[in-house]
Amino acid sequence: MRTRPGRNERGSGTVLAVGLVGVLAVLLVAGLLVAAVATTGQRVRTAADLAALAAAGRALEGADRSGACAAGGRVAVQNGASLLSCTVSPTETGIPRVELEVGRPVDGTPWTVRARAAAGAVPAEEGWWG
């Protein structure tokens, strides 16, 4: 009994299709992770900016470091982040400068995204003129 050519390859298309579906699933998961990190990163940057502005506003009103950083921490929490560090520095102009760092975990991963922001006076060595 003679067999036709290709008869021994029966079912190989199924194996190829399963492999292709597996590769597509891995690419989809990787894309979703990248999107989750990017989205969380944007949210953390926004939270850091808003928290720095809140802290600088309180410092400008005369609050001490703890009061200014507490205001920044509240705004960070309201935006889904947590305050990791906060410094309030006096400047030559009398306008305080606030620098802080906030973080937020990326949903579904063990990763945490961090962002830094500053608000208030710009020190002379960091001036807009270069």
Give a short synopsis of this structure.
The protein has 130 residues and is an alpha+beta fold.
Q: What can you tell me about this protein's structure?
A:
With 130 residues, the protein is an alpha+beta fold. Helix content is 48%, strand content 20%. It has a three-stranded antiparallel β-sheet, with helices on one face. Helix 1 packs antiparallel against helix 2. The chain starts with 11 loop residues before the first helix and ends in a 10-residue tail after the last strand.
Give descriptors for this structure.
130 residues, alpha+beta, 3-stranded antiparallel β-sheet
Low-confidence stretches: none
Major sheet description: 3 strands, antiparallel
- Give the class from helix and strand content and strand pairing: alpha+beta
Shape: rod-shaped
Which percent range describes the beta-strand content? 15-25%
Main sheet strand line-up = 1-2-3
Per DSSP E runs of 2 or more residues, the count of β-strands stands at: 3
Termini distance? 87 Å
Q: What portion of residues is helical?
A: 40-55%
The total count of helices amounts to: 2
Succession of helices and strands: HHEEE
Element layout with pairings:
Elements: H1 12-60, H2 65-78, E1 82-89, E2 97-105, E3 112-120
Antiparallel strand pairs: 1-2, 2-3
